[in-house]
Amino acid sequence: MMPNTRPPPPPEITTAVFSEPWQAHALAMTLQLHERGVFTWPEWAEALAAEITSAQTAGDPDDGSTYYTHWLNTLEKLVISRQIGTPAQIHSLEHAWEAAALRTPHGQPIELVDTDLHHLVTL
């Protein structure tokens, strides 16, 4: 590369990075937990690899379509094993998000409100 020249821009992304919004949310939660020191990237990679291997052993098609399901399962397992949350809390949050999604008009951001969280189990 010649001095004072910039590299060419990256190629334009023509496909969606995430096929569903929850996948982006799972990634964002993982980044936040890593930034807070809940796990290191090598710990994350090991846990995700174990989850994928377990799923493949159980018959997962290994075609990429379930990657973020494995990602979310890994995230849930780490949250539970690191005692940040319990299975009951995760289950309660699933219902809270479902309720929020049902009342949200298409195309609008889904937001949790206090009434969604009234049944949330605490530690």
Give a nutshell description of this structure.
By secondary structure, this protein is mainly alpha-helical. Helices cover 52% and strands 0% of the residues.
Describe the protein's architecture and organization:
The protein is globular. The chain is built from four helices and no strands. Among the domains are: 41-56 and 66-84, no CATH class; 86-105 and 114-123, no CATH class. With 123 residues, it is mostly helical.
Descriptive tags:
single chain, 123 residues, mainly alpha, 4 helices, 52% helix, globular
Please compute the radius of gyration using only Cα atoms: 18 Å
Tally of contiguous helical segments = 4
Report the oligomer. Answer: single chain
* N-to-C CA distance: 57 Å
Number of strands: 0
| Biggest β-sheet strands, sense, barrel | none
Principal-axes shape call: globular
Q: What class do helices, strands and sheet pairing give?
A: mainly alpha
Which sequence of SSEs, written as H and E, runs from N to C? Answer: HHHH
Contiguous low-pLDDT stretches (5 residues minimum) are: none
Q: Give the DSSP E fraction (strand runs of 2 or more residues).
A: under 5%
- The residue fraction in helices comes out at 40-55%
The pLDDT mean sits at 86
